[in-house]
Every structure is written in C-alpha cells, then in structure tokens.
Amino acid sequence: MPAERREIAPTTRLVGTINPQRRTVLAAEVAGAVIELTVDIGAQVRKGDVLCKLRDSMQRFDLSAAEARRDEWQAELALEQANLDKARFEKERIARLAALQRSDKEVNDSEADLRAAEQRVARAEARIAAAVAEMQRAQDQLERMQIKAPFDGVVVRRLTELGQWVETGGQVFEVIDLETVRARVNVHESAISYCAVGQTIFVSVAGLDESLNGTLARIVPDADLRARTFPVEIDIPNPDRRLRSGMFVHAALPSGPREEHLVVPKDAVVLSPTGKTIWIARPGDNGHTGAPAPVEIIAEAQDAYAIQSHAVAVGDLIIVRGNESLRGPGPVIVRNAGAGGVVRQNRQDGPTEKSDDGSKPGSNEDHSS
Question: Are 191 and 255 in contact (CB under 8 A)?
C-alpha cells in the first residue's frame, strides 16, 4: 500500500482497565427468610427477572385482610347510598306537602336526615379509600419479598444462601451491566486539553488480542494531585459481552493538535529488538527491491500509524504482508500492489514461501505486478 499524508493528531498510549457501565449490589428491602434463589453467579439476567424470593406468608395474609375490608366497606357504601336516595326522596316529598300546608318541623327534619345520609356516604367512601390504601401497602410489601434485577446484566456475586435470614438492607446479589463497557485511563495534564467528549478513541484489548473503537464519554475535572492526571472514561459497545470487567487495555489518547503526517498501515510496522521498521518495495529495471526503513511512531489510528522517517516519502510502496519474513535488502516479488497483496523475498539460498495462489519463487507461475 502507498504511504500517504493525512491529518491526524499525535497520540499517546495509556494503560487502562475495563469497568462495567453499571454495577449494583441488590439488597432486601424487608427482612425475611430466603426460600428460593433462582440464579447463580455468571447468570445473564433481564430487567425485572426475580433473583431471590423471601418467605411471604404474612404479607399474603395482610393483603387478603385488606381486600376483605375493602369489600366490607364497599357493601356498606351501597347501603348508605340507598339510604341517601331515600332521604332525598323524602325531602322532596315533604317540600311538595309544605307548599300546600306549611310544616316547618317536617321540612327541617327531612333536610337534617338528608345531610346525615350524605355524611354517612362520605364516611363509607373514606373508609373504602383507606382500605384500598392498606391493600396497596400490603401488595407493595408482598412485592418486596421478591428481589428483581434492576437492569439487563450479569450476576457476579451471590451474597446469601437458601434458608438464610436476611435483615432489611441485607445484601443478596451483585449485578453488572456489560452492554457497554467503560475503559478508564488517566491522562496527564499536558494532554488533557486535547481531549474532548465525543472523540473516537482507538482501544486495544490485550486479553482478546483485538482492537476496537470507543467514544470518549467522560472527563473528570479533578486531578490526582500526586500524578497530575485526570480520569477519562471511554465507552466501548459490547453487545456480545466479549469484553469483561477488569480486562487490561491500551488507549490511544490525543496528545497534541491535529497536523498532517506521513501515514502507513499498521500491518506495515515490524517490531524488532533494534526498533520499529517498515519495508519499502522500490521498483527498478529488474523488478522490486525490498528495503528496510527505521521509523518512529508519533500517532495511532485504528488502521494506521503516523510516522517520522527520513527514508520514507509519500507514494512509496509499503509492504504490509510478508514483511515479517524479510531479512535484508534484496529482490522481492510483489503481488497485487496497492491492494493488500503478498510480498516474498526472492532468495535462492533460503526457504521459499508459498503465496496466495500456491506458487513458489522462480516458478513459471510467478508474475510481478
């Protein structure tokens, strides 16, 4: 692939640790004896799943009693409502008679009876409301005897056993959410001004030998006074749950302004005891010659490194496959130049290596490109 110039910010690789997006320790809201544990450590749970059940006999009795009192007062309300209708009818009848023959006592009595009936209906309605509230309280207490998952996650600790008595506030399970994980790193004060929420950050995970893109989500504006570093959190999508809490990561954080640099693919860089090297396939009259060039990496992106080297220029054909087997300057066979092809060193005194199509150096199947 050809070397090119691209605008890229210099980066520094920082060590970090993966943390879950959310972590919570579930506790009992009421005291009780554990009668069932429905999950164990490592179980995947969904929001609302019941993880633990406490004995709830008394709560069920309380709920039944509250429901019975509500039904009792609903019957009482029906009776008082009938008495109210009767009092209204009687008042209207007395009022009609009073128009023909004045009778203040009967009118006053009918009005008083009506007001008394209205008060009895209101009292019955209030008692029903109290019974409903008591029933709701009993229902709430009953539901608290089941400890449920507050979000989708994974159970990482079990803190109780079957038959154990759990006090109010007693811890039962610890659950973490790994749908999105947070890589936490500490950025030095000299580089924190180049970090901004929303930036795409390249992260490599040592345990999986894998590189991923994350998003810089949070910058904590409170430095460690001894190290003069600021905590930064990078959110990484983790739908398959392959990333786990506590994994070791390297994150490439910006450490300077964006500038144009010479950029080569990551696969082009070969690490050796003497440093970092890339191999250039230089064309000539008799084919290509593989030549090593020492480089210094000054920035990192997901697919490329920004480098400094006096031996590399824009447009140089950089070897990205087969470069690990090159040992010194010499003729090489290039296949599919510019399209991620294979390079092999054309040496008669060393072992040969098959290319993608199975041909060997010097055979009739070799074709330079």
Answer: yes
State pLDDT tens for residues 103-145. 666 667 677 777 777 788 788 788 888 888 888 888 888 889 9
Report DSSP letters for 223-252, one per residue: -BTTTTEEEEEEEEE-TT--S-TT-EEEEE
Cα(180)–Cα(217) distance, rounded to whole angstroms? 12
Based on the number of CB atoms within 10 Å of its own CB, is 301 exposed (0-12), middle (13-18) or buried (19 or more)?
Answer: middle
State the DSSP string of 140-183: HHHHTTEEE-SSSEEEEEE---TT-EE-TT-EEEEEEEEEEEEE
β-sheet with 270-272: strand ranges across: 270-272, 275-284, 287-294, 330-334, 343-345
The CATH code of domain 260-345 reads 2.40.420
What global pTM score does this model have? 0.64
Asked if residue 301 lies in contact with residue 202, where contact means CB atoms within 8 angstroms, the answer is: yes
Any idea where the domains of the chain sit in the sequence? 9-21+180-259, 27-55+145-174, 57-143, 260-345
CATH number of 27-55+145-174: 2.40.50.100
pLDDT of residue 355: 40
Cβ contacts of 76 within 8 Å, gap of 6 or more: 124, 127
- Cβ neighbours for 95, distance < 8 A, ≥ 6 positions apart: 107, 110
Alpha-carbon distance of 55 to 165, in angstroms, equals 10
Question: Which CATH architecture describes the domain 9-21+180-259?
Answer: Beta Barrel (2.40)
Are 304 and 6 within 8 A, CB to CB?
yes
- In three-state secondary structure terms, 331 is strand
At 58-109, the pLDDT tens digits run: 888 888 888 888 787 787 777 777 777 777 777 676 666 666 565 666 667 6
Alpha carbons within 13 A on the beta-carbon side of 273: 0
Provide the token pair at 69. 């009192």
- Per-residue pLDDT tens for 224-264? 989 999 999 999 999 988 999 999 999 999 888 888 889 99
Across 197-223, average pLDDT = 90
> C-alpha 328: how far from its chain's center?
48
